[in-house]
Specification:
alpha+beta, Umud Fragment, subunit A, 2 domains, eight-stranded antiparallel β-sheet, four-stranded antiparallel β-sheet, 4 helices, 12 strands
Length: 247
């Protein structure tokens, strides 16, 4: 009689829940640990939760990037050779927008500034304006007629004069170790820098549109910040140190 019940019991077990999984489920439940089914459900829920939160995380990262760009650091593209050899065409630099809240620009600083004396203001619709603001801040594009990068040579209240390419500040010889071997032998008559303004020049003196010619004096309110590092291309990545020009 026991033999006749054995096959029937075995068949019942095979048709129902697999005995191994049932025993495992019961054992894990008794030990207070989640079963494999529960762990699989939690994993699926975790992946779904991450995907739902991803747009929010991207939005937060985007807002933080815009805040940093607006108030702390901004990338700029070098569009001309006016600062060669210090900065070359295609370089991208980061500009510290906070530093001049603590002290004014100093002689030798490489600064980025807006068009000091704009004549024709371009009108963009809101979408074009936002796109320009975003790409410019990422250093993707740059308009050489809107933003400039030069070196501070003369400070407010000083008198600058150039004789055969040699700069004089208040009658004293200015030593400029950052200049290349190609010298500029042109003269520039004495000019007094008005209060609240800067006199800037490019390191490539023979090929620079600066305060000597087209730009004139740079109002301090037009200064965006000080360039402090080259971030692109990788082979050119380096700090941009302020090289003091000694009078």
């Amino acid at each position: 009689m026991d033999a006749s019940r054995g096959p029937a019991a075995e068949a019942t077990t095979q048709e129902g829940t697999p005995s191994g999984e049932a025993e495992s489920f019961e054992a894990e439940t008794k030990r207070g640990r989640p079963s494999r089914v529960e762990r699989r459900d939690r994993k699926n829920k975790g992946a779904g939760s991450f995907l739902r939160e991803l747009p929010v995380l991207l939005f937060i990262a985007f807002v933080l990037a815009l805040l940093i760009k607006s108030f702390l650091v901004q990338a700029f593209y070098i569009p001309s050779e006016s600062m060669d050899q210090t900065l070359r065409i295609g370089d991208r630099v980061l500009v510290n927008k906070v530093v001049y809240r603590f002290h004014p620009p100093r002689r030798g600083d490489i600064i980025v500034f807006e068009e000091p004396h704009p004549t024709n203001e371009s009108h963009r619709n809101p979408l074009e304006g936002f796109w320009h603001w975003l790409t410019q801040g990422l250093g993707v594009s740059a308009n050489p007629e809107k933003d400039f990068i030069k070196r501070v040579v003369a400070l407010p209240g000083e008198t600058i004069e150039i004789k055969a390419g040699q700069v004089y500040i208040d009658g004293r010889n200015l030593v400029e170790p950052y200049l290349g071997l190609t010298g500029d032998t042109r003269d520039y008559p004495p000019h007094h820098v008005p209060p609240g303004n800067l006199f800037v020049m490019g390191d490539n003196r023979t090929n620079s549109n600066d305060s000597r010619f087209g730009l004139g004096y740079i109002p301090l309110r037009k200064v965006v910040g000080r360039a402090f590092v080259i971030i692109w291309p990788p082979g050119r990545a380096q700090w941009v140190h302020t090289v003091p020009a000694h009078v």
